[in-house]
Amino acid sequence: MSRSPLPYNPKILELFRNPKNLGKMEDATVTAVAGNPLCGDMIIFYLKINDEGVIEKASFESYGCAANIATSSIVTEMIKGMKLEDAWNISWKSVIEAVGGLPSVKFHCGILAVGALKRAIRVYYKNKGVSPNWLPKEPSFEEKQALKEEELAEMLSKRMKTEEEK
Ligand code: FES
Fold it and tell me: What CATH code would you report for 10-165?
C-alpha cells in the first residue's frame, strides 16, 4: 500500500527546509526537553533570559518531523523579545495558526513544541526559587500532552523489549 504525502502548506515546507534558530545555545539560561528520544520525537528548547524576565534569544534542536521543526522554529521567532508571562500565554493553537495550519494528525507535533517552551519557563522560575502569580501550579494542556506522549513512548519501548526477549 502506498502512503500519500501529508498535505503540508508551503510555509511549513519552507520552515522545515530553512528553520530559524536551529541549534544548541551555549549561553542559554535554561534548557528544556520534551518528547522521547526512544521514538525519535524529541525537542530541546534553549532560552536566554535577561534580568527583567525578557527572552533575549531562543533556539531549538528537534528530532521530530517537519511539522515539529516548523512549529518549533516559529515559536523561537514569536517569543524573541517577549516577557516570560506573554510567552507562557502562547497556545498550541496560535502556533499552528502562525504556520498556516497543520493536518490534524500533526497537531501533537506543535503541542510538543509549546510543551517544551512551557517547561523551559517553569525551569527558569524553579531555578530562581520564585513562583510568579501568573504561573499556574497545575501543568498546562501542552505540558500534560508532552508527558502523555513520553509515557506512551516509554510503554511502547518496554513492550518492544519484552517482545524481543521472548
Ligand atoms: S513530532 Fe512526532 S510526528 Fe511530528
Answer: 3.90.1010.10
